[in-house]
Write a structure and sequence with these properties.
Distance between the termini: 34 Å
Number of strands: 22
Radius of gyration: 33 Å
Strand order of the largest sheet: 10-22-21-20-11-18-19
Shape: elongated
Number of domains: 4
Strand content: 15-25%
Length: about 650
């Protein structure tokens, strides 16, 4: 988990650095604003002159421009490299143009814009800091995926086991995978038979029995018995590495998305630069001198970048994310908050999302006393590390059952376990195994078991002295909250789809139980991402809700990736929104928070930009014929007023609690 702390620290240090820039820029901006002509015109207060006072504003503004403004200039260069000019570009143009013109005006006379530069940089830095503080750091899903692969492998060489680093494995090597170990490479079983847990890769909730000739996947866990495996794919060729590649590609495809403020800033940049050039050209054509024409052009560019725009969105984001966090919903970036309102299809992974993700005893049937039956069953299963055995032992413990001593205990890989309990021959295992042991089978028991198997449940049979006495059925239980979540989403007009690596039979049972109209079963991780892509190509905006490694590519591919909290680190790192409480109903809350927040964002953008409708033409000199020209003092009052309105409007945001 070390890199997670590192990632968190990196984000934290970035936020702290931005705060330092904002604080220092604000401190330096105060004397610039107090000594400006605009401040004097509004308040009537004029600071006393002192030696070098005329150089105070240019000097402090230069420091602010270099220290605070460089943040926006660097950001603008990044945006321009991506060919997506946005907020950074708008601010960078406004401060650069006004700074250069202000230096020019010191020599040639005319208006300077030092107080505008100082206040604009300070306000915009605070806006960015507010937003960054309210969001979590970006994740490192790829590093988490890499952690799934063991660092070493047991190579069989000349009849001996040699431990070698994983990167030395080659195709054709024969390796030994002991019980409890992770599979280091994709391969084929040469010898042995064992159950493997592939749930973190495929989403298949129960362990899979693999025999000689069967395939194993890197990253899965060998549960029962040693396996000899010949390596077929190693290193970057393994299935897990291909999943890694998919996550990378999906991440790259998302980098071109823009948030609302950046889209608005893009158009505002075009308007500002266009209006600036038009103002200059028109005044030159009308015979005005170059200084006057340039002053009008620069005024337009500065005014077109309103201070309120820097706070309009960050304040809403900050309030929405802090409210969400209190509700157990962590929002990792602004884009997911903005996109969630447009989602019309919600895709749920089954295992661990709609279901608990762990096996539990759901049914029990026996023709002997239940307590005696559980005692026999528990006594044998307590010696096994198998996922189903652990679930049975936990169930018996909850019932207050204590195990008896077992003699002659044996594990028959892929079949079951046998042993002597109180001098009785007890066998526990699958139907094929019990058929081998028992002389005849009770039809009533088989019929009940068969009905449960049709529902996709795993059935474990028990025989005593070669007679079938009963069974327990286990299933991955559906979360109680899932039913409400699906009903709530359908009531909001959203299409709900379930996707799983589990068998079609299990998927069909869960989908019918929850009232889901459409499902995809037996879907591998790379196919999950493709299914999401197909839905997107059909014009849907897709939210993917998942918890496992097998969901990582799909979570990244989706328009909004939502991870259920108790899932793997990989799922949490691939998602943009995390539901801490493991409650699928929180997906509805995510959509509602997004709708409310985006509505406030648009309201704030209106207040932040509305004064531009008349401020830009007046700054350009449209009203000069009638003696109307936008004075810096009036411009400052309008800017301040829109900033105050934007702040109050954001603070008035109320969320519905469902």
């Amino acid at each position: 988990m070390h890199h997670q702390h590192k990632r968190h620290y990196s984000h934290k240090s970035h936020v702290e650095e931005l705060k330092k820039r904002a604080i220092l820029s604000t401190i330096l901006a105060i004397p610039v604003i107090l000594s400006s002509e605009t401040f004097h015109n509004i308040t009537g207060i004029k600071l006393p002159n002192f030696l070098g006072s005329s150089f105070l504003s240019p000097l402090l503004s230069t420091l602010i421009f270099i220290y605070g403004g460089s943040f926006f200039i660097k950001g603008a260069l990044k945006e321009l490299r991506k060919k997506l000019p946005g907020m950074m570009t708008l601010v960078a143009i406004a401060i650069t143009v006004s700074y250069l013109y202000s230096l020019y005006s010191l020599e040639h006379g005319g208006r300077e814009f030092f107080w505008e530069i100082a206040s604009l940089i300070s306000v915009m830095l605070w806006g960015h800091w507010i937003e960054m503080k309210s969001l979590l750091g970006t994740g490192k899903a790829l590093e988490e995926l890499v952690k799934l692969i063991p660092s070493k492998a047991n190579l069989l060489k000349n009849g001996k086991v040699v431990e070698i680093p994983i990167d030395e494995l080659k195709v054709g090597d024969v390796i030994l995978i002991k019980p409890g170990e992770k599979v280091p490479a994709d391969g084929k079983i040469l010898e042995g038979s064992s159950y493997l847990d592939e749930s973190m890769l495929t989403g298949e909730s129960k362990p899979i029995l693999k025999r000689a000739g069967g395939k194993v996947i890197a990253g899965s866990i060998n549960l029962d018995a040693p396996l000899k495996v010949v390596v077929e794919k190693a290193g970057e060729e393994t299935y897990l590495s291909q999943v890694l590649k998919l996550v990378k590609e999906a991440q790259r495809s998302k980098t071109k998305l823009q948030n609302i403020a950046d889209r608005v800033a893009f158009y505002l940049t075009i308007i500002a630069v266009g209006s600036g050039f038009i103002s200059f050209a028109v005044w030159k054509l009308l015979g005005a001198n170059t200084d006057f024409a340039m002053e009008r052009a620069v005024s337009v560019m500065v005014i077109a970048c309103p201070h309120a725009l820097g706070l309009a969105i960050p304040l809403v984001v900050s309030i929405a994310t802090s409210y969400s966090a209190r509700m157990g919903i962590l929002i990792r970036n602004r884009l997911s908050l903005e996109r969630a309102k447009d989602v019309n299809v919600v895709v749920f992974d089954k295992t661990g999302t709609l279901t608990e993700g762990k096996f539990k005893v759901s049914d029990l049937f026996t023709k002997i006393k239940e307590e005696d039956f559980l005692k026999l069953l528990m006594s044998l299963e307590q010696n096994s590390e198998h996922i189903i055995a652990r679930a049975i032992v936990n169930y018996a413990k909850e019932k207050g059952i204590k195990p008896s001593e077992v003699k002659n205990f044996k594990v028959l890989a892929g079949k079951g376990v046998v042993g002597l309990v109180n001098e009785q021959e007890v066998a526990v295992g699958n139907l094929l195994f019990i058929k081998e042991i028992c002389n005849e089978l009770d039809g009533k028991i088989l019929k009940k078991a068969n009905n449960l198997m049709k529902e996709g449940k795993s059935v474990v049979f028990v025989s005593v002295n070669k007679e079938l006495v009963g069974f327990v059925a286990l299933s991955d239980e559906v979360r109680k909250e899932s039913l409400e979540a699906i009903r709530g989403l359908k009531a909001k007009g959203k299409k709900v789809i379930m996707i799983t690596g589990d068998s079609r039979r299990i998927a069909e049972y869960v989908a019918n139980f929850l009232g889901i109209d459409e499902f995809f079963a037996e879907v591998l991780p790379h196919q999950k991402a493709l299914k999401i892509k197909e839905l997107q190509e059909r014009g849907f905006k897709v939210a993917m809700v998942g918890d496992g490694i097998n969901d990582a590519p799909a979570l990244t591919q989706a328009d909004v990736g939502i991870a259920i909290g108790a899932g793997t680190d990989v799922a949490l790192e691939s998602a943009e929104i995390i539901l801490v409480r493991n409650d699928p109903r929180d997906v509805i809350k995510v959509l509602e928070i997004s709708e409310k927040a985006v509505s406030k964002m648009y309201q704030n953008l209106f207040w932040a930009l509305s004064y531009n409708l008349f401020a830009i033409p007046l700054a350009g000199g449209v009203g000069i014929k009638w003696g109307i020209i936008l004075k810096p003092a009036v411009s400052a009052i309008l800017m301040s007023l829109s900033t105050v309105i934007v702040s109050i409007n954001a603070l008035l945001m109320k969320f519905k609690t469902t």
